[in-house]
Structure formats: structure tokens, C-alpha cells
Design brief:
The complex is a heterodimer of chains A (about 325) and B (about 425). Chain A is of the alpha/beta class and about 325 residues long. In chain A, about 40% of the residues lie in helices and about 15% in strands. Chain A folds into 2 domains: about 5-145 and about 300-325, Rossmann fold, CATH 3.40.50.1370; about 150-295, Rossmann fold. Chain B has about 425 residues and is of the alpha/beta class.
């Protein structure tokens, strides 16, 4: 019994997209290939395809987000779906309505897909377990657990930069692994794609227990962790983590783990620098690196639309064909 | 109703407190055991119970039962749970003080006892609050609580923040010979955790509760128990290391005992892999090594009791994302069968397993039950060890249907439960 099983249909295709853990290399590659085909669409002057015409997608966000919600919305619109944005913190939750009530009410409006973000780990799985059979769920971030579309847009970016052979790559993820759903999803995706060396770099206070079991090598020294790296992924450090028991100061964190041009020179000359955003300039990384020639941070945002289009079309694919006889 | 005269004949009588395990009859009159073995020639029974092929054991005693009344009657009531207990062969329940209102006045103890008596099912004994309102600041009126019948004191799931107040509370309890019941948790370390901190909490991104949240609390509590000389009991230990610490303290003569909750013997952190809310427990399910350590502690008698840690909930309490669900499982229905399963799986001998739910908890609570001695209250469970049943919503008697053991095929069905010499449950009626 694995956490990810409910996201796969009997025939091996995607039903929900909840976590990169538990998926197969073939499915991840299919997401990347499909995203590649949509990347062309987003670059055309008419940026729409009719794949999800007539479908209703609800962005159900229980936690603030600008970029992720916007790119999901754009992705849905470019697939010709109708999109409804619901910010639950501001509506039902304060009236005491349970999550399940909210879900059932929306389902009664004949929704086809929920894109869900929530502060509690496991929320997307919970919702997936309670939706009607024709409804799909995409996880847009749950607690510290998973943020699989972010991980896939990162994989997409790496593949475009470095080619499809992940086996020869060394990828270093630097920063607050303990509180990062992005890092967890990236680690599973990198390992499924057979990445040669997956490293994490952080002080002990920002590394969760037994993290090696996820298939990573742990470094506490940024210079050692960066040595010969092909890809460096910097994680966002929440400001509240810097004052308290996890870190002594912003200053010391930047000294030890902030990415500067000088430290970056230890990595391979063609190193790619990534960040899921939004960046804390002068905390995780120097502006010269963020805006420098090795940075692909803005490309990541662009790729986010194509990857989310790919995932949305894949989970709805089966539903579309299943419903055709009744149409 | 006059006390019936009852003869239970032909059964295998297992009474660990008296080291009895043989085919013996037992006679009951005036609510008490009047004969074991041969009944007096002139004993004329009002009720003859044929126990051929059945086990006759002392009524079970559950150390930790949340009745939910007063305060949360939408989850369960004293009536519903005392009846469920009787159906599960349990004759005495121990209710912790975190009801609403808190058990910090004699009136609440009296209310609970009165309601329980009205049910005519299991008996309820209460733990009084260690501090007023469980707020950890003022001592409760322990002498008054003791006079009202409380069998010990506890701060339930709210460990004291101040070691100073803890020391004084222990001293005050020791003044009256009251046992202190402890939930070993360092709340600064457990923080907002909702499962064991380890490999799986990392994968699921769920805030973890480190082992040290328990061991640090046990170390601190043991130091204060030694300092004050109070008699103390650790409720529901979950880690192998904590069991070893308690074993060492007992070896050194510290007056301390400990128990384990049934779910921690069958389940581990790995069961939460699917975010299943039925596996949400506080204290949490730990590792498989911890489970082995708990079983070993149970075998060696360091853990001298098993409890259901009964926490019935309404369905909605478990219908949410894992961290937002309420912890705990409904356990009265499965206590007996899951205790017997430890024998089937060769972890315990049958008399030892029965001792852990009868004489063991009786001695922790210092109450005169859990044994079939002549003159003692006739609290008796008669069970069919071979009968199997399936645990599910329809077979459960508790109002709370939340259980991680749903669908398990279990053996051991209660045929009759007697409390104070009255039949309070008969499988013929259900």
C-alpha cells in the first residue's frame, strides 16, 4: 500500500497528480514530452488549444499563492477550460464549513478538476479519496509534503538545459529541506529519472530526520556540495525561520549557504542555477547570481505553464474518452 | 433487583492473581464470589451458566477510557460506553480527568459514578485532576477528591510546564498516598507534531514527534518521583528507550509502574503511509523496533498493564486532512480479542496476557478487583476463545466507530459479563 497509488488508474495512466513519489519514470517522461508539445502553443500568437473545452476547473487555494495559482489559471485557459478561483481562507473556512462540505458543494456544481493548495500535508490525498469518480485532483502544494507540478517544471527546465540523460548529472538542492514540499517532490522526481548524484546542502537544523532514505547525499558545507555540480537548486528560506532555534541570523546563513559568484565557480562551468521563487535576494543568493548568465529562474516560470497544461490534459484524457459514448 | 445466586460450571477458570488455571466451577451470591471449585452442597443456584468449552476469567479493567461525558456527548456517553465495555468483557473503567468540566471537584466524580450506576453496566472509577482545571498552576483539592473516591491523580494529556509545580504536586499527592498517572511528553519537543519523527514523517512532510519528547519527559518525571517518593504510573509508553528507563528505575526500587496501549503493539508509524486518519494517535505509533521493545517490556512485566486508550469520536473528527483530524481510536470492543491475539502470536502465555488486563491494572489502581478470590466482588468474564468475529461498524458497541482494526478477523467472543454478581451482558440478548 503506497501513498501514491490512488493517482494511477488501473491501466497505468494518471488519474490524479498528487505526488511525484510512487509514479514511474515512464509517466514522468510522458509529462515532460507532453509539456514540450505545449511549450510551442504558449509561444504562438493564438495561445489556445481546445483540449479541455467545456471542462470546469476549480483552483481551490487554502493558502496564499500568486505565481502558482496564476500559472495554473493560464494553463487551464490555454486548454480552453472554464476556471474558477476560490480562496477558501477568505470564505467558507471562517464560517465553520468543513473541507468536505466545501468540496461537496463545489462538486454539486459539476466540477471536473480541483487544483488544491493547503497548509496541511495530505490534503490533496484526502480530497482525491473523496471526489466523485470522474473528478481529478491536482496537488498545487500540501504542507511540507509535495508540490509535484513545481518539481516537474524543474525537471523540464533541467532537461531543456542538460538533455534527457539525467544519469550523468549532479544536482545539488540547497537550503531549507525540512520545511520544503518542493525539495521532497524534486528528490523523488530526480531519483525516478535516474539522476546520477542527488545532493542536499544545509545545516542540520534544516534537514529532516532520516533524509538519506529518500535517496540523497547530505552535505553541510556548501562548497563541498557544489563541487562539479551540473545543476544547483536554491530553496527559499522563510524569514520566520531565521529568528529562533533553527538559524542564528540571516547574516550567518548568507555567509555559509548564500550562493555567490565566487562559490558558484566551484560547480561546473556550465552549471544551471534554479530557484522555485520568490527569491530572497541577499539571503539565499546574491542578485548577481540570480540575474546572471547561469540563472534560468524566469524560464522556470514560463515552463510552469506548459508543464501544468501537460498534467491537466493527462489526468483529463481518460475522462474525455470515457465520456464520449454518452455525449 | 436482589442479588442472584449463580453457578458457573465446567469452564476453564483462569485467575492469574491466584495462579489458578484449571477446570473449576465458581459460585456467586450476594454479589461476591462464594466458592471456587466445589460449591457448598446446599448451594441452590437461581441461574446455572454452563461454561463447558469456555474460559472464565476476572472481568477486565481498562486503565484509560475516554467516556466523553460530561462535555462531549456527541462523541459518546457514559451510558453508551459502559454498555460497550460490558459487551467487551470489561467490568471496570478508569476515566481520566480531562472531561468538561474537568474532574477537579467531588461533584464531577459523583456525577460520573451516578451516571455509570444508572447504566447497570460496567463500573467507572475516576482519576482526579492533579492541578485545578488541568492548567498546571494551582494544586487541586486532592484530599477532597480522594474522599469522593478518585483512585489517583493525573494532569491527563497536559504535562506540567513547571517542574517546580510538578515537584510540589507530587509531594502533595504523596501526602495522601495517591498515585500520580503521567503522560510522558515534553511538549516543547513534540511541538505541533502529529506522528513519529522518522523516515516516514520526512516523506509525508508531516510534523514529527521525536522519541526524545517521551524519553526527556520520563527522565524528568523519574527524577521527581525519586525526589518526592510519590507512587507514579506512566500511561501508554511508546518507545523502547522509555521502557528501558522505567525498567532500570524499577530495578533500583523506584515506586513506578507503566502500561502500553493496544494499538502500539500491533501498528507502527509505517501504517500512516496513506495519511489514514485512523492511525493518528497521540502519543504516536512508533517504529517497529519500538513495538518490539514494548512487547518485550510486556513479557518481562515492566509494562504490567495493557489498556484500550479508548477515544471514541464522531465520524467527522476523522474526515479531514491528517494533521487536522482528532487523534485516538475507539478501543473497548477490541481490547479482549487483541489481548488474546498476543497469545495466538506467541508473545505472551494466556495467564500472563489475562493478568495484563485484570490483576495488573487492579494493582496499579489499588482497587480490589481483577481477581476471583472468595469474598471479592463477582466481576467475571465468560468467553468463547474459539469464536471468531469481524470488527466493523456493525459489530462494535461503542458509539465511536473509529478504529484502525476495521475489518480484522478476531477470536474470542464474550458470552457473559458479570459485575458485582449481576449479569450485565449476555450474548444471548444481542
Amino acid at each position: 500500500m503506497k501513498a501514491a497509488d490512488i493517482q494511477i488508474r488501473g491501466d497505468g495512466r494518471l488519474r490524479h497528480f498528487l505526488s511525484t513519489e510512487g509514479l514511474t519514470r515512464e509517466l514522468l517522461t510522458e509529462v515532460l514530452d507532453t509539456a514540450e508539445s505545449f511549450a510551442g502553443v504558449t509561444e504562438q500568437s493564438v495561445k489556445k488549444v481546445p483540449l479541455l473545452r467545456g471542462k470546469t476547473i476549480v483552483n481551490l487555494f487554502f493558502e496564499a499563492s500568486t505565481r502558482t495559482r496564476t500559472t495554473f489559471e493560464l494553463a487551464a485557459k490555454r486548454l480552453s477550460a472554464d476556471v474558477l478561483n476560490i480562496n477558501v481562507t477568505a470564505s467558507s473556512a471562517v464560517k465553520g464549513e468543513t473541507l468536505l462540505d466545501t468540496l461537496r458543494n463545489l462538486q454539486a456544481m459539476h466540477v471536473d478538476m480541483f487544483v488544491v493548495r493547503h497548509t496541511d500535508s495530505g490534503t490533496a490525498h484526502f480530497i482525491a479519496r473523496h471526489v466523485q469518480p470522474h473528478v481529478s485532483v491536482i496537488n498545487a502544494g500540501d504542507g511540507r509534503h509535495a508540490h509535484p507540478t513545481q518539481a516537474m517544471l524543474d525537471m523540464f527546465t533541467i532537461r531543456r538545459e542538460k538533455g534527457a540523460d539525467f544519469g550523468r548529472l549532479t544536482v545539488a538542492i540547497v537550503g531549507d529541506i525540512a520545511h520544503s514540499r518542493v525539495a521532497r517532490s524534486q528528490i523523488h522526481a530526480l531519483n525516478l529519472l535516474n539522476t546520477g548524484d542527488v545532493r542536499i546542502v544545509a545545516p542540520r537544523t534544516l534537514i529532516p530526520s532520516h533524509v538519506e532514505s529518500l535517496g540523497v547525499r547530505v552535505f553541510h558545507d556548501l562548497r563541498e556540495g557544489l563541487r562539479d555540480a551540473d545543476v544547483v537548486i536554491m530553496l527559499r528560506l522563510q524569514r520566520e525561520r531565521m529568528l529562533g532555534a533553527l538559524l542564528p541570523s540571516e547574516h550567518e546563513y548568507y555567509q555559509l549557504y548564500g550562493l555567490t559568484e565566487e562559490k558558484l565557480s566551484i560547480a561546473r562551468p556550465d552549471v544551471t542555477v534554479m530557484h522555485p521563487g520568490p527569491i530572497n535576494r541577499g539571503v539565499e543568493m546574491d542578485s548577481r547570481v540570480a540575474d546572471g548568465p547561469r540563472s534560468v529562474i524566469l524560464q522556470q516560470v514560463t515552463h510552469g505553464i506548459a508543464v501544468r497544461m501537460a498534467v491537466m490534459s493527462m489526468v483529463m484524457q481518460q475522462n474525455t474518452t470515457m465520456q464520449e459514448p454518452h455525449a | 433487583m436482589p442479588d442472584p445466586r449463580i453457578r458457573i460450571s465446567g469452564g476453564r477458570l483462569i485467575d492469574p492473581a491466584n495462579s489458578v488455571d484449571e477446570l473449576l466451577d465458581i459460585c456467586v451470591a450476594n454479589g461476591r464470589v462464594v466458592a471456587v471449585g466445589q460449591c457448598a452442597d446446599d448451594f441452590s443456584a437461581d441461574i446455572e451458566l454452563d461454561a463447558s468449552g469456555l474460559h472464565v476469567i476476572p472481568g477486565l479493567i481498562d486503565l484509560n477510557t475516554r467516556l466523553r461525558e460530561p462535555g462531549e456527548e456527541f462523541k459518546a456517553t457514559i451510558d453508551s460506553e459502559c454498555r460497550a465495555a460490558a459487551a467487551g468483557g470489561i467490568t471496570t473503567l478508569c476515566c481520566p480527568p480531562d472531561t468538561d468540566p474537568v474532574i477537579d471537584t467531588p461533584a464531577v466524580i459523583e456525577l460520573i459514578r451516578h451516571r455509570a450506576q444508572q447504566t447497570g453496566a460496567a463500573r467507572v472509577v475516576s482519576l482526579g485532576a492533579l492541578t485545578r482545571g488541568l492548567e498546571g498552576e494551582h494544586l487541586s483539592e486532592m484530599a477532597a477528591l480522594q474522599r469522593a473516591g478518585c483512585v489517583g491523580v493525573s494532569n491527563a494529556l497536559k504535562p506540567l510546564a513547571s517542574t517546580y509545580i510538578q515537584r510540589r504536586a507530587f509531594e502533595y499527592a504523596a501526602t495522601f498516598g495517591l498515585t500520580v498517572f503521567l503522560h510522558a511528553e515534553d511538549t516543547a519537543l513534540s511541538a505541533k507534531g502529529c506522528m513519529h519523527e522518522g523516515n516516514l514523517s520526512t516523506r509525508l512532510g508531516l510534523p514529527g514527534i521525536p522519541e526524545a519528547a517521551e524519553t526527556v519527559a520520563v527522565a524528568r518525571d523519574l527524577a521527581l518521583i525519586e525526589q518526592t517518593g510519590v507512587r507514579a504510573h506512566f500511561c501508554r509508553l511508546t518507545t523502547q528507550r522509555a521502557v528501558r528507563m522505567v525498567a532500570r528505575a524499577r530495578f533500583d526500587g523506584v515506586p513506578v509502574s507503566a502500561d502500553v496501549a493496544i494499538p502500539n503493539l500491533y501498528l507502527s508509524e509505517l501504517d500512516t503511509i496513506d495519511f489514514g486518519a485512523d492511525y493518528h494517535f497521540i502519543p504516536p505509533l512508533r517504529t517497529q523496533e519500538d513495538r518490539d521493545g514494548l512487547l518485550e517490556g510486556l513479557q518481562r512485566g515492566v509494562l504490567s498493564a495493557l489498556c484500550s486508550d479508548h477515544q471514541p469520536h464522531e465520524a467527522d473528527a476523522k474526515l479531514a486532512p491528517f494533521p487536522a483530524t482528532e487523534p485516538g481510536a475507539s478501543g473497548l470492543d477490541s481490547l479482549l480479542s487483541l489481548t488474546l491475539k498476543l497469545v495466538e502470536e506467541n508473545h505472551l502465555l494466556l495467564p500472563d496476557a489475562i493478568a495484563r488486563v485484570t490483576s495488573g491494572p487492579a494493582s496499579i489502581l489499588n482497587i480490589p478487583y481483577g481477581e476471583l478470590s472468595i469474598g471479592r466482588a463477582a466481576d467475571i468474564c465468560i468467553l468463547d476463545p474459539g469464536a471468531t468475529w469481524r470488527l466493523d461498524e456493525t459489530s462494535m458497541h461503542s458509539q465511536g466507530k473509529n478504529t484502525p482494526f476495521r475489518g480484522w478477523e478476531l477470536s474470542g467472543r464474550v458470552r457473559y459479563t458479570l459485575r458485582d454478581g449481576h449479569i450485565i451482558f449476555s450474548s444471548d440478548d444481542s
